[in-house]
Amino acid sequence: MNLIYVMRHGQSVLNVEHRLSGGKYDGDLTTLGQTQAHQVGNWLRDKGITKIAHSPFHRAVQTAEIIGEHLGLPITPDNDLAEINCGDLDWRTDEDSWAAWRAIYEHWLQCDWRATYPSGESYQQGFDRFNRCLMGIKADDTPLLVTHGGISTTVIPYLCVNAAALQGSRMLDYTGIIVLEPYGDGRYICRAWNQTEHLQPKPA
Question: Taking the domain 4-199, which CATH number applies?
Fold first, then answer.
């Protein structure tokens, strides 16, 4: 089986607004986010990508569209790649809401199956849907999955046989890439975490 590339979307207006967004799909890429998507699209040209799937959120759709233009590939929506559904906290910007979001997110980082956002989803639900997407990948495909930081950082480490190496900072930069190699029985080897080579300035 080939490699799987899992990528966070480019910077969006919602990120700049510091707005929680796990339910509504709205939110365009910023000019910087568009640039990041073009940079990663160029970087992926020689990686043998065979298909592009993306979250239904606008920031992920727009990121995938730009990359698809660079790679000459169509893009396919997959609701299983959506960001954490944070329920009643969605669309808020105040610090109290962020504190409440982070408190539950910490439990997600610890694989607490019962940790649930108010009127949102539980870790069990988030894990199951994201894993369902991965399990549906065909052995001869090298896919790019354009998704989100929250769901990726909480689920992927618990699917990897080298998870211990991922216990430090798990955060993903905008268009940061995780490279997974299938290991068998629904498990993976993480070959790269938060790959951002494409964002580095080119040597003069």
Answer: 3.40.50.1240
